Amino acid sequence: YLVMAAPTAGFSGNEPGAELFEPPTGRSEDWYSAYFVEQWWNAWAHKLGITTKINEDLSMALGSSCVYLWDLTNVYTLFNRMGQRPHPIFLRRVLDRDGRILEDHSSFYDPWTTLPDRVASGYAKLFEPVDQVIKPETAFVMQHLMEDVCKPPGTGGRAVALGKPVAGKTGTTNDLFDAWFMGYTRDVVTGVWVGYDTYDTPM
Questions:
Q1: Whose C-alpha in 4, 69, 79, 98 is 20 to 30 A from the C-alpha of 141?
Q2: What is the pTM of this model?
Q3: Please, which residues bridge with residue 94 across strands?
Q4: 67 Cβ contact list (under 8 Å, min separation 6)
């Protein structure tokens, strides 16, 4: 849901009113986003975890800036975690040649981890500080909007074949040179990019 300043019948026309509406994210009508880009998008994107430079113009509403797939996947992980910043790891455990544990990042949710390690990991999580980047209510609304994208006739409607709740967003870049799908279920977050390394040939 977005709150847009707009003249209303109760005002003289010179005073902004507030209009609450749910944008049609299941369709490719992204024009409404342009109203909000110049005011807050650059700071907001970096707050969520985007590390690349953001174009400071209205075309950013259509995704005209280049971003890393890793960054964008982490942003969607944040929505899936109700606004809490993820701390991804690449190595679950490091052992020396004698079998001694040098580093351990076992997860309570990892089905391949032994029960004692899962319990120990879950207990340790209780004492980790939470990095709440956005309000849970905001993340919930974002998830609600993206769930509609992954239902027919949304652009990601074929995701219903998974048979579980899915939230996500499809997208294409300028002149159809690239295609994206960013989405998640309760336990998996995925980012998919399809395109060529150079801008010589569109898909």
A1: 69
A2: 0.69
A3: 103
A4: 50, 52
